[in-house]
Amino acid sequence: RVRRNELQSPASSPRSSPDPDLTELLRARIGEDYTFAGVTQDGEIDEVMGGSDADETELILFAAPSSAAPQSQKIRLSSPDAEPREPGMLVKPPRSYYFTDEVTSDREEELQAAAVDGDAVLEMSRVPWAGCAVPWKVTTISAAGLQKTIRVGHPPKLIPVEEKAHKKKRKGKKARIILRKKMQATTTKQEEQSRTAQEKEEADREKRTRRNREKKVKKKAREKAKKAVDDTVTAEAQPDGEEGGGSHETD
Predict the structure, then answer these.
(1) From the CB of residue 135, how many other CB atoms can be counted at a distance below 10 Å?
(2) Predicted TM-score of the model (pTM)
(3) Could you report the per-residue pLDDT of 106-138, keeping only the tens digit for each?
(4) Diameter over CA atoms, the chain
(5) Is 130 within 8 Å of 154 (Cβ atoms)?
(6) For residue 61, which of 52, 53, 49, 70 has the smallest C-alpha distance?
(7) What angle do CA 239, 245, 248 make, to 5 degrees?
(8) pLDDT, tens digit, for every residue of 15-36?
(9) Greatest mean pLDDT range, 40-44, 128-132, 163-167, 244-248
(10) 90, 136, 138, 141: most buried, per Cβ within 10 A?
(11) Compositional bias (Basic and acidic residues) at which positions (predicted)?
């Protein structure tokens, strides 16, 4: 990308006053080296000016800003003349550029050393290039899976890879507070369940004890009632026997 300010010359600093002695010396040397001839004919001036204008073309190369008027740049065009010439390149290289004349023995040895035939190319293609081979960048995957090995150096050498144990990352403060609350709620729930189970077990034990006590009381009452019935039956049967025995003795 070319900017407009790069094409224009930078603003130069103000010139200092020239040295009069140096100016006179330069003028004297210019007068010695060059001869100046004035142009007196107007036709020659028009011809020179016309030829210079014919080779120049004004083109607007860059878009001008909206606040300023468009500026055109003059470009000098040059093209070869239209004279008839032999077809070919403008600059013809010499024949020695393409062909070699009779060579000496030393030159022939140099050419033979630099020349390479097809057999030499095939032979060099089979030679390994130690500096260009990077086998450790190649990953070989077999049917069994990826091997945990890496090729290092040249010639290839296998080195086992030890997988490092992943360190457990500590959770953040908010996560730790939430986890602590969950653990506290779980502990409270477990204690409540344990207390409820204990109270239920004590209630069942007390109920069984009360039932056993009632059974014993009822059993004693039944035994007591049975004994009372037996005593009544015995008492009713015993007076009859005692009365008969007394009359027999009296007689």
Answers:
(1) 13
(2) 0.24
(3) 888 888 888 888 898 999 888 888 778 787 888
(4) 216
(5) yes
(6) 70
(7) 145
(8) 666 777 888 888 777 766 666 6
(9) 128-132
(10) 136
(11) 189-207
